[in-house]
Write a structure and sequence with these properties.
70% of the residues lie in helices and 0% in strands. It is mainly α.
Length: 131
């Protein structure tokens, strides 16, 4: 029941976002907060769509309309943002960070991270490590 309500709020909020001058509603911001909080729980977009009680293809269209990117791209970017924080502030190895953030391998993590940041995780750590 709750998921249905959240899905309806999400749909209404996404429709409101078609106007460029309209700011995201508090409901939309809460939904993105929920996605952010559950990044590691959702191994694929179908799990996200299921949480919001929507068909995956429909959820993907709505999400892209609201954000300009696919849900999976959003999740990868958010995971890389978390990785940046960990690389700056944690002594954990790159491999450990990769697995902690839900990547299947450190190689896949490095590829995605480099594509999004322009640096390998090791380079990023050397450049941005908090002293």
């Amino acid at each position: 029941w709750l998921r249905s309500v959240v899905a309806q709020i999400f749909l209404a909020s996404v429709e409101a976002l078609t106007e460029p001058s309209v700011r995201p509603s508090p409901e939309t911001e809460r939904i993105f907060g929920e996605v952010e909080a559950r990044l590691l729980e959702w191994p694929h977009v179908a799990a996200v769509a299921e949480f919001f009680a929507m068909e995956p293809s429909y959820f993907q269209r709505l999400f892209k309309k609201a954000t300009g990117m696919s849900p999976w791209n959003y999740i990868l970017r958010a995971r890389c943002r978390h990785a940046c924080d960990q690389l700056r502030h944690s002594p954990s190895s790159v491999t450990s960070i990769a697995y902690d953030l839900g990547f299947s391998s450190s190689q896949h993590f490095s590829t995605v991270f480099r594509r999004l940041t322009g640096h390998t995780p090791g380079e990023f750590r050397r450049l941005h490590h908090a002293t």
